[in-house]
Amino acid sequence: MTDETIVGIIPNTHAGFFGNKCYNLVVTNKRLIVTELTSEMIKSEAKKVAEESKQREEGIFKRFASTAFAGTKYYTRYQSMPINQIISENPNNFVIEPQMVKKIRVNFRYVDAEQTRSENEIRIKWSGGKSIFKFNSIGTKEAKNILEVAFPSKVK
Predict the structure, then answer these.
(1) Which residues pair with 101 in a beta bridge?
(2) How do the residues of the chain divide into helix, strand and coil, expressed in percent and rounded to 5?
(3) Gap between the Cα atoms of 111 and 89, Å rounded
(4) Which of the pair, 109 or 151, is modelled with greater confidence?
(5) N or C: which end of the chain has fewer CB within 10 A?
(6) Reported CATH class of domain 6-41+75-150
(7) How far, in Å, are 45, 87, 103 from residue 5 at the CA level?
(8) How many H helices and E strands in the chain?
(9) How confident is the model at residue 1, as a pLDDT?
(10) 3 state SS of 85
(11) Other CB atoms closer than 10 Å to residue 31's CB: what's the count?
């Protein structure tokens, strides 16, 4: 039996009505872990980053910039966390196992008529229904490559 390892993270995805929920998709060699990023988690991370910046005696603008984007780097912590701790970090985190998945589609699309704004989208049809995650942090090809490790032949 091989150990479960993280093969990639699709960070800062959005889902829900008006994209009001933020998730990081942690893909292991065995499954997908959907981790919800709450406003409390972002505030806590921003506070931590601000304190670290202050201890380094950085200027006001550097501190402001580092705290403003603290939530966008939150996913990096998962690279060194044990899998079980990632799952249990938040009660809204959940797992999608390969046998639960019918198909996964990764698409690029324009979100306006002028084709000036775009987004990438992951659509997962699985036993829990249909989940749609929108993202721009990585490209569709990279997202497909990451997902194919855990879900071979199900990613289109």
Answers:
(1) 126
(2) 40, 35, 25
(3) 33
(4) 151
(5) N
(6) mainly beta
(7) 25, 13, 22
(8) 4, 7
(9) 45
(10) helix
(11) 19
